[in-house]
Amino acid sequence: MRKSSYRLAAALAAVALVVTGCSSSPKDEASGAADKQLEIFTWWAAGGEKAGLDAMQATFEAANPDTAFVNASVSGGAGVNAKAVLTSRLEANDPPDSFQAHAGMELDSYVKSGKLEDLTSLYASEGWDTIFPADLIKTLTVDGKIYSVPVNIHRANVLWYNPATATKAGITAAPVTLDEFFADLEKFKKAGVTPLALATEWTQAHLLDWMLLATLGPDAFEGLYNGTTSWTGPEVAAGIKNFQKALGYANKDAQNLDWPDAGKLITSGKAGFFIMGDWASAQWQSEGLVLGTDYTWAPAPGTVGVYQWLSDSFTLPIGAKNRNAALAWLKVCGSQAGQDAFNPLKGSISARTDSDLTKYDSYLQAAAAQWKTDRLVGSTVHGVMGNNALMAAYNSAVGKYFTGGFKDNAGFAKDLAAAYEAGKA
Q1: Does one domain contain both 17 and 119?
Q2: What's the pLDDT tens digit per position in 239-279?
Q3: Rounded (10°) angle between helices 12-20 and 336-346
Q4: 152, 343 in Cβ contact below 8 A?
């Protein structure tokens, strides 16, 4: 992928002016009067995620005061629970008016099953063709048609830790290499601190995704998805061995926790390192914690100079009951006002190249700069590299490996290979 650049910005009245000033799509006026309701489906039910959604809701309501906003969020990290509910609704021909989907192969799943409207004309009328990075648009495009509106860019490969806990363990700088990472885990262990915070199945898959990238490097990692790197070859075997080693340092109750619970092990000083996406920072800020004091960050070890990314986007389902309201929502999603209200609270950078970085904290400003300079590699677990079928099988394989005591490395590699094949079926 080519390297690409990138609170409410004004009073609500000003926001309304910005959004309502957008031009209309050729299809906008097909059903006449404005809809009285808008149902939005996400998994942003708490913390910084909900705060970000609330800010974009406020932006929408300022521009559409006569439309009732219905938040149909389903809680659960990475959308595991939400996607199950969404699948049932789509199969029953009862779609929400717009739903959240990751850019990349996850979105492709919905397009190929005939669930989404083509938004190419909306991109043209709103001028998004030149505002969103071209390579991001490619991940939203199937057979030359664009099917979703990106609201952000997240970074998946981030190392989070508590500076005071690290100092207690004798760690004075973030690890850069995997060797340094494992050496620091040992330091935490000797200091009586759980070395690595971990939660339920999808966070384990998130950890594996980073570990494979760190072990294989970006070219061989991408080769896993274009057929040039074997899932059962020596490179993946080395990655699984490193993953197995890391799991040995994790909290034993991981299966009973979701990612915010694992994050609290870091901020409370009970655990040393946490490999998690940058939505973690927004969660902690929503709890009143201070970046740089209560927690800090570094690129995940072994991936310095590599930006493993994902992007949340919103769709227009075929059969949406409030189609005009959904189109109005998508205009807010793609607008500068909407994105600069949403992203500082969500813990992500804007998908637009013209965002106002003065509204973003020091981490997000650094992330925006690194998005422009780092090697960009898509996330598996968050939909860029894997479709829904692949991700479901991938998460299941990880869960089986973890609950089995992470012993059968060869069997695990075969299960990951089968997950990849499931995504191709």
Answers
A1: yes
A2: 999 999 999 999 999 999 999 999 999 999 999 999 999 99
A3: 130
A4: yes
Least Cα distance to 163 among 292, 290, 268 occurs for 292
Confirm if 198 and 250 have CB atoms less than 8 A apart: yes
Specify the pairing of strand 271-276 against strand 158-161. Answer: antiparallel
23 with 159, same domain?
no
pLDDT digits (tens, 9 = 90+) for 183-215: 999 999 999 999 999 999 999 999 999 999 999
Query: Which long-range CB contacts under 8 A does 282-289 form with residues at least 24 apart?
Result: 282/47, 282/48, 282/49, 282/51, 282/52, 282/345, 282/346, 282/347, 282/348, 283/47, 283/48, 283/49, 283/347, 284/48, 285/48, 285/347, 285/361, 286/47, 286/48, 286/51, 286/345, 287/47
CATH code where residue 181 lies: 3.40.190.10
Statement to judge: residues 391 and 289 lie in one domain? yes
**234-247 helix and 409-424 helix, angle to the nearest 10 degrees:** 120
Pairing, β 194-196 against β 271-276: parallel
Q: Which helix (H) or strand (E) holds 150?
A: strand 149-150
Quote the pTM value: 0.91
Rg of the chain on CA atoms, in Å: 21
